[in-house]
Write a structure and sequence with these properties.
Elements lengths: L2 H30 L2 H4 L1 H18 L1 E6 L9 E5 L5 H4 L8 E6 L8 H7 L3 E3 L6 H15 L3 E3 L18 H9 L3 E6 L15 E7 L9 H26 L7 H14 L2
Parallel strand pairs: 1-7, 2-5, 2-6, 3-4, 3-5
Antiparallel strand pairs: 6-7
Helix pairs in contact: 1-3, 7-8
């Protein structure tokens, strides 16, 4: 086993141990505290994961645009490439809420933690009344000033892959009438989906200026895609340039070649 693989394996062991041990040991405190105060425990867990990535794997992150995060309720709309995206910004968010697959709520400890934070379960195969109830719950949480985290593409995609944005975020933008904050990131280069490898290096997460409510849904949707994809391309080029030894997935290589061709270089 190479040193790179050994460090990745060690990180994975520590990552899951960190999650499970914290959940068990801190449960009496977590469930005793008021909901919002208890959220400091998941925030501390997220910070510890950033420390583990830096210390064990040698991966550092740089967050650009924190000043763009508004006060109160908004929709956070990140690119989604790995599990890292799920917790990355927790330390900088006030009171986030996620719409989760209902099966996740059945997992011991994790589901109880999520229920304490009033996360919103959804049956992905449901239609009609079930989805109406999800939207009602979402609107209720947003009225309380919470931040909805939703991935516009709906699923994890490898870096550089052809975007697959779902129109549902445009409907949420219209119905909830709150700002949408796009977030571009290429964590999938360092924490690939469906892989146990973790790669050292340095990458950036970029928080873009919020898209304010009031636009027509179609115009909003086009603006969101254009801004996120432009920023994603810029970060991909930067990550490849500053991490020359990083093994790039085929999708990233193809996208970099296309960008180089478009620029005439």
């Amino acid at each position: 086993m190479t040193m790179l693989a050994l460090r990745a394996h060690l990180f994975n062991v520590l990552f899951y141990a960190n999650l499970i041990i914290r959940m068990i040991v801190l449960s009496p405190i977590y469930f005793f505290l008021p909901r919002k105060l208890a959220f400091r425990i998941p925030k501390a867990w997220a910070r510890s994961n950033h420390w583990l990535m830096k210390t064990v794997v040698g991966t550092t992150i740089e967050i650009e645009g924190l000043e763009h995060i508004p006060d109160g309720g908004y929709i956070l709309a990140p690119k989604h490439q790995s599990f890292w995206d799920v917790y990355a910004l927790l330390p900088w968010m006030d009171d986030p809420v996620y719409i989760l697959k209902r099966e996740l709520m059945w997992i011991p400890l994790f589901g109880w933690y999520a229920a304490k934070q009033r996360m919103i379960p959804v049956n992905r195969g449901a239609r009609g009344k079930s989805m109406v109830k999800v939207m009602q719950r979402t609107a209720e949480e947003m009225r309380n000033g919470r931040q909805l985290v939703i991935y516009p593409e709906g699923t994890r995609l490898p870096p550089g892959a052809e975007p697959q944005y779902k129109y549902g975020i445009a409907r949420l933008y219209r119905d909830l009438n709150v700002p949408v904050v796009p977030v571009a990131v290429h964590a999938g280069l360092f924490w690939p989906r469906r892989s146990m490898m973790r790669y050292p290096g340095h990458y950036k997460l970029r928080i873009l200026p919020p898209i304010l409510p009031g636009m027509e849904p179609d115009a909003f949707f086009e603006k969101l895609i254009a801004e996120l994809e432009t920023a994603s391309d810029e970060l991909l080029v930067d990550a490849a340039r500053t991490n020359p030894d990083l093994p790039l997935p085929p999708t990233a290589k193809a996208r970099l070649e296309a960008l180089a061709g478009n620029s005439g270089t």
